[in-house]
Design brief:
By secondary structure, the protein is an alpha+beta fold. Helix content is 25%, strand content 19%.
Length: 402
């Protein structure tokens, strides 16, 4: 017969399963025992340089909803994708002071993060090269964005911001913004099928940067030791042509983390400060970000994300779920947009052509124990759905035993 301890553990498992599966507000775990880690593509970007700062100063409805979601979920460590970078951190200051630290409609108690990390990204930074083969360098609007190191209309657009309740060891953080694509072994160099020639000539190829934004290893000092927060936001595998330059870049941006975790000296894998090599074999980590690749659906090379999910150092775990995502995915299916992936696993709604897909990930290393997970995407009948549409992506969270 089961003991009372067995029954208690079974009851706890049922509670965690329910919390992970419905997309509503999870209970905040005991801070001393559990680390809640999240990723959230916030759509807090603007096409004008300094535009996000001005919007936040004026009061931004989308930012209020993003803050409300964060106040509800209350992660200890979170990556915000698509948060415009400015060197002085004005946007980050404003978001913290005027949004997170003030009660928001539908949100919870004010939320304070004493530690943050942000740095330059490649988006919007002119390359001085004709990367889109339109015969000109730079220009206006999309033409200018296409010739940047990463697509963007101004430097810093679609940036990244890490917020933490635990100290960040910024001196040991590593960034791979400048790493050249050509240095990665085994790359699939884009080929123009019309001519059979490489899309980028040798002079251009040798200069191209791999990361469309950046790849960061941010060490966070938790109560039980350092956790390496490995964050990125690879380019979408679309907006190109039959040469598939964005699809191939997306795959190799994801592969960079596989290389970083794999054994070997990795002498080619040098960060922006000149330090070479991957992550120590005994280090604990969490990979997070909008990786722009669904394991089964949409565009892109699905093997790239599948091989990351199956990396020996990545924890095997149940996929985060939500009721709201399943509802939307099934509605698309009823209209003829069929998908192979589980409806409950989607993390964003990308409109009637693309549908709903799983693009956002929080992947802990082996050595952690998973206590819970979910996607903040309540069903349409849930009052919390009113704050869930601040972005076309939804926050993904996991609870990890320390």
């Amino acid at each position: 017969m089961p003991t009372s301890a067995h029954l208690l553990l079974a009851a706890l498992a049922l509670i965690l399963s329910a919390c992970a599966g419905n997309g509503t507000v999870p209970e905040t775990p005991a801070a001393a025992a559990t680390l809640r880690v999240a990723t959230y593509n916030t759509s807090l970007y603007d096409d004008a340089d300094g535009g996000l700062v001005r919007r936040l100063q004026a009061g931004d409805a989308g930012a209020r909803k993003i803050a409300a979601v964060l106040q509800q979920v209350r992660p200890d460590l979170v990556l915000l994708n698509e948060f415009d970078y400015d060197a002085g951190g004005m946007a980050a200051d404003l978001f913290q002071r005027d949004y997170l630290e003030r009660p928001q409609a539908g949100g919870g108690e004010p939320l304070h993060y004493p530690y943050r990390y942000f740095a330059e990204v490649n988006t919007g930074v002119p390359s001085g090269l004709d990367l889109d083969h339109n015969g000109t360098i730079g220009g206006e609007g999309r033409d200018r964005g296409n010739d940047a190191w990463g697509y963007g209309l101004h430097p810093g657009q679609y940036g990244m911001l890490v917020l933490s309740k635990h100290p960040i060891d910024a001196a040991q953080a590593r960034g791979f913004r400048l790493l050249r694509w050509a240095t990665m072994p085994g790359t699939q160099r884009p080929v123009d099928p019309k001519t059979g020639k490489y899309w980028h000539d040798d002079a251009v190829w040798e200069q191209l940067r791999l990361s469309s934004k950046s790849h960061w290893d941010v060490p966070v000092r938790t109560p039980s030791g350092t956790v390496h927060f490995l964050v990125s936001h690879p380019t979408p595998p679309v907006f190109d042509g039959p040469e598939d330059r964005n699809g191939l870049r997306n795959a190799d941006e994801i592969r960079l983390w596989r290389e970083y975790l794999s054994p070997g000296t990795q002498a080619w894998l040098c960060d922006d400060a000149g330090r070479c090599g991957g992550l120590a074999g005994d280090a604990r980590f969490v990979i997070a970000g909008d990786l722009n690749n669904d394991p089964a659906d949409g565009d892109g090379h699905h093997d790239a994300i599948v091989e990351l999910l199956e990396h020996p150092r990545v924890l095997r775990m149940a996929t985060p779920r939500s009721e709201g995502g399943a509802e939307i995915a099934r509605a698309y299916a009823a209209k003829g947009l069929q998908r192979r992936g589980a409806p409950e696993h989607v993390t964003g709604d990308f409109g009637p052509k693309a549908g709903a897909m799983r693009l956002d990930y929080v992947l802990p290393s082996t050595g952690f124990e998973l206590r819970g997970s979910g996607v903040f995407w309540p069903a349409s009948t849930d009052p919390a759905a009113a704050i869930a549409d601040g972005s076309d992506h939804h926050l993904v969270w996991v609870d990890l035993a320390l």
